[in-house]
Amino acid sequence: MISFRELLRSLDRSAFGTWVKLPTTDSVELLARAGFDFLVIDMEHSPLDTGTVHQLLGAAAGCRVPALVRVPDRGASVISRVLDSGAAGVLVPHVDTVEDARAVVSAARFPPHGTRGFGPTVRAGGWGADAPGYRDSGAEVLVIPQLESRTAVAAVREIGAVDGLGALFLGPADLSVETGLAGGSAEFAALLHEVETAAEELDVPLGTATGTAAAARDLARRYDFVLLSNDATMLGQAAAGLLRSAKEA
Known about the structure:
Layout: H1 4-10, E1 15-20, H2 25-34, E2 38-42, H3 50-63, E3 67-70, H4 76-84, E4 89-92, H5 98-108, H6 131-140, E5 142-147, H7 150-154, H8 156-160, E6 168-170, H9 172-179, H10 186-202, E7 206-210, H11 213-219, E8 225-230, H12 231-248
Parallel strand pairs: 1-2, 1-8, 2-3, 3-4, 4-5, 5-6, 6-7, 7-8
Helix pairs in contact: 2-3, 4-5
């Protein structure tokens, strides 16, 4: 299966993904069949636990679609466990400083480059059959910090230069809430532009998220990967639209 890093390199356009929030492998299969380039299993804003994430990652592997995991926080234990379960990488919320960035990279990498425990009898190690591949995976998995505050934007060049990071992710909703700025304001646009410029200068892939296809098309001009909606919202909107049309008829 192609890795997320290879996916970004192989496309001549932005990669489109979506969030997985529902605790069912059927969501993964349906989204893969729909043609999304990648998926992000969301532990930050859903009730998903590591056991359920393990099952969802197995379904993604079976569908041959790269799957990242957004972990609930910067804790090393969850980062290690979802990578052992086969995640192509982790999105880590609220990485505000270069020290935060170094810590999450360390949690994902094996010694001497990090602090992640070595246990190849897991899915990422072929259940013990591929210890060398498991060791190599420590350098291949992507660690993607989410930049969601003024502090993070101010430190974007230092964060983006941390060895071992695979990409940057700009969280517009949290950034708007944290700064108190309206999404359409000139000051907010300047913050986004600062991150976009820094990512280009550092030659680091940059991602973001949105809720509409029109916004995703626009963002794809400036971002290397874009997350569009999520499985729960798509199900709810499709159901409401179908029922509304039936009632109107």
